[in-house]
Design brief:
Elements (H helix, E strand, L loop, with lengths): L1 E6 L4 H13 L3 E4 L11 H17 L4 E7 L3 H7 L7 E3 L3 H9 L5 E5 L5 H13 L6 H16 L7 H4 L14
Parallel strand pairs: 1-2, 1-3, 3-5, 4-5
Amino acid sequence: MRVHLGSDHAGLELKDHLMTWLVDHGYEAVDHGPFVYDALDDYPCFCLRAAEGVAADRAEGLDSLGVVIGGSGNGEQIAANKVEGIRCALAWSEETATLAREHNDANVVSVGGRMHPVDDMTRFVEVFLTTPFSEDERHVRRIGQLTTYDESGELPPLPESALRGPGSEASPDDADA
């Protein structure tokens, strides 16, 4: 599996660590930078390239995921999600890394280089890379709604429960519907 990485200065140390870890664990790691510490660098130029790499690989049918890293991971996640076809999730625990793959079929994970010890963040990335998408119908349906919105701007229809309005109580029969 190919793994694209991008960060900023706050994630540089973790990115460099992950490059070695990935190669040692049989992954093909692609480093989109930065390559030197620069306290004034901007994460979008590196994280967008990593996300673009994942999107391009997947468009060609290749098995590819991505990791973006910053101080908190928030901006990096936002940047990666700007790339068409990318679903980037912020992981701050093994559980959030697992659910990002199982429920959201995320193809990029974002972690905060200043939020956790390196061993913990390495584990979050490992869990993300090794967890498959569940293929549950409800998750496929939800991802489909997001894809439709991305492509057309069309909002998903509201469920019946939302159409009743505030204060209306659902009857016991509604639970079976």
